[in-house]
Amino acid sequence: MSQLSNIAAVVFDMDGVLIDSEYVYRDEIGRFFSANGIDLSIDTLNAQVGASHKDYLAFLEKWWERGKGEKVPGPELARKVDAFNRAEGPLDYAAILNPGVPETLSELKEQGYRLALASSSLIGNIRHVLDVCGLTDAFELIVSGGDFHESKPNPEIYLHTVAELGLEPEQCAAVEDSIPGIAAARRAGLTVIAKREERFGFSQDGADYIADDVPAVLDVLAGRVPAQGGR
């Protein structure tokens, strides 16, 4: 783990950190499968939280084959899920922006931190979310997991982000929430701050610090939050 005084940049995840989307996506997927006669348990649905787009497609394929006994390509199922959700009405990303996000990003910049975004989501979705949430200019660097052979928990997305910033891993902190994201940032050598998440039943023990909310990231960087497990 890096010393906090060495941190020059903060790299944010998007889903579950900037926006409270993981909860919404999980329920949307559950409703889609239920409407098609496939009932998935909460534990099963929770397994895809934080997954890369590639892994998400694999989950859809597996669940559909298990429930229907037929193979349907993941991209086709993803289009069906999207169409189902659009029929219910467009998701208002601005309405699920986590409290204090714009203010925290602004304060971090005021304190001299560089800001980047490294998300497993596809770049089109990332840019749309940032646009509707008024965060288009919040980050100097935006990196999508869709540009890599494997996204989180593979550390490549973070190694690439750090290299693009011209920094070393120990000079960067990652703000994550899910197991794949925490693992990716930790494997890349960043200091890992987990935004507390207790709704999906996964452990955040892999993080160096826990921030109760996004504004608490400022407290972590200021040394006001103790590291986990004596790290």
Order of helices and strands: EHHHHHEHEHEHEEH
Give the strand line-up of the largest sheet: 3-2-1-4-5-6
Global geometry: globular
Helix content: 40-55%
* Mean pLDDT over all positions: 95
Number of helices: 9
* Oligomer class: single chain
Spatial extent as radius of gyration: 18 Å
Q: Given the helix and strand composition, which structural class is it?
A: alpha/beta
How many DSSP E strands? 6
**CA-to-CA gap between the ends?**
7 Å
**Low-confidence segments:** none
Main β sheet profile? 6 strands, parallel
**Percent strand:** 5-15%
Describe the overall structure:
The chain is α/β, with parallel strands linked by helices. 42% of the residues lie in helices and 12% in strands. The chain has nine helices and six strands. The protein has helices at 21-35, 42-46, 53-68, 74-88, 101-110, 123-132, 156-165, 179-187, 216-221, and strands at 9-12, 114-119, 141-144, 172-176, 191-195, 209-211. Strands 3-2-1-4-5-6 form a six-stranded parallel sheet, sandwiched between helices. β2, α6 (123-132) and β3 form a beta-alpha-beta unit. α3 (53-68) packs across α4. It is globular and about 55 Å long. The termini are close together. The mean pLDDT is 95.
